[in-house]
Amino acid sequence: MRPMMRSARGAMIGSVERYTAEQIQVFSFEEHVRARPAMYFRVARESPELPTEILQQVVWDALHHRDGTHGQVRVEIESDLVFSVEDDQRRPGDEQGKPLPGFFGSLLDEERWAPATAAALSVRTVVEVRLDGRGFRQELAGALSAGDWEEFATSKPSGTRTTFQLDPSYCGPDEAIAWSLRPEDLHGRECDANPSPVTFSVHDIHDLRAEAENSAGE
Fold first, then answer.
1. Beta bridge partners of 64
2. 3-state SS, residue 116
3. CB 3.0–4.6 Å: which of 39, 73, 99, 187 could bond 191 by disulfide?
4. Distance (Å, whole) CA 205 – CA 211
5. To the nearest whole percent, how much of the chain has pLDDT over 90?
6. Cα–Cα nearest to 171, from 118, 209, 121
7. What does DSSP assign to residue 64?
8. Mode of pairing for the β-strands spanning 205-207 and 73-79
9. CB contact at 8 A, 34 and 170
């Protein structure tokens, strides 16, 4: 047995020695999301459900606060691959009253992975953060900043509105966000065990495509 163990150990050492640095692949955050979307959105790139799953994960993230309570969320589906999610979560700020920098120094909150992964699959993302009555806006290309923050006037005390334009070359020409997003798909057993009231309903989902069709048919 001992000679066999030494032989196996020698083979293992030889295998390790043949493994060089050139064989190691280092992926950026965006490359990792685009290469393995199922790790983040439960379905593969080829699935026609991918745009809907992206939307659901972003809404789930916005709805569920870090303390286990539920917040107010508003969803707008602007087109087949463009949607906006607005929530009332308050971002932490610095001594100057500005939001703390998030992913890659952007306005994406680094404690919330879903918006960042959705941005990685988008050609354009616009983040608007409201903090104590001040508004801050930034545009991203993928998950990276396409410009500096801009301050704007707002009447809302706190919250974030993020608009995603999903990459059509990545999602595919025939893929689209589902016509109906069911609120029950955004809750799990954790919600049943939490005393916080569930405030999200179908009235908080605005499908502008359907509204446009209804207007055209009148």
1. 70
2. helix
3. 187
4. 12
5. 54
6. 121
7. B
8. parallel
9. yes
